[in-house]
Design a protein that fits this description.
Blueprint: E1 5-9, H1 14-25, E2 29-34, H2 37-49, E3 53-58, H3 64-74, E4 81-84, H4 99-119, H5 121-127, E5 130-134, H6 147-167, E6 173-179, H7 206-218, E7 226-229
Parallel strand pairs: 1-2, 1-4, 2-3, 4-5, 5-6, 6-7
Helix pairs in contact: 1-7, 3-4, 4-6
Length: about 240
């Protein structure tokens, strides 16, 4: 029997890496996608040393053609699960935001999500697979100096819902995970003061975000949903 295949974008660190490690432990062959070859190699080595199976694939999620090569790599086996944890942002007042700054964030977060889903559509359809898009909870409310990032993340949420509707007939489920302040290297110190507003009074852990991601991945009757895991921050 073939091993299930998972593609994890942003798999070299943070929530993506946590997902890759957990999936490999559960018997998936994990294809880790990321821009930095060094991080991918370290992650793959750790997975293989622990007895798992993993393949690195260096790519920028904004690169349509390179993601086409990824699709060709997994065409024969198909893909059981796609997790997109690739993303990025920077703080800038909207009145000072350049065209290039706007495009960089939108292309990484929104275009990258669509490019991955679209290029892997055939492989996902082959296995009636699932997609989980990791989308920072900026889409839920206004965030000062993050208009570009919030708009991109809101687009990802709408994308997940539309793909869930269009691809349901193919057996592909599409959901989004919306994490709050999570204890990863990407958590910038400027967000630390927000911890005082979290009802559960702490950061989330990578393990908790992985738990939620895999819940969405295996829940066969959930699609088009956004699961917020932020310790109640969205309530205040």
């Amino acid at each position: 029997m073939r091993s299930p295949v998972a593609v994890v974008a942003g798999g070299g660190s943070g929530i993506g890496l946590g997902c890759a490690i957990r999936l490999a432990d559960k018997g998936y062959h994990v294809v880790l996608v990321g821009r930095e070859a060094g991080k991918l190699d370290i992650a793959v080595r750790a997975i293989v040393d622990a007895g798992g199976a993993a393949t690195p694939f260096q790519a920028d999620v904004r690169d349509w053609d390179r993601l086409g090569e990824l699709a060709a790599l997994v065409e024969a086996t198909g893909v059981d699960l796609l997790v997109n944890s690739a993303g990025g942002q920077f703080a800038k007042p909207a009145a000072e935001l350049s065209r290039n700054g706007w495009q960089a964030v939108v292309e990484t977060n929104l275009n990258g999500s669509f490019f991955l889903c679209r290029q892997l559509y055939g492989a996902l359809r082959k296995r009636r697979g699932a997609i989980v898009l990791i989308v920072a909870n900026l889409w839920q409310r206004a965030a000062e100096q993050l208009a570009h990032s919030g708009a991109a993340r809101a687009g990802v949420v709408n994308l997940a819902r539309n793909l869930a509707l269009e691809w349901a007939a193919d057996g592909i489920r599409v959901n989004a995970l919306s994490p709050g302040l999570t204890d990863t290297p990407a958590l910038h110190e400027r967000y630390e003061p927000m911890l005082d507003r979290v009802p559960l009074a702490r950061k989330g852990t990578v393990e908790e975000m992985v738990d939620a991601t895999l819940f969405l991945a295996r829940s066969s009757y959930i699609t088009g949903e956004v699961l917020t895991v932020d310790g109640g921050l969205h309530l205040v």
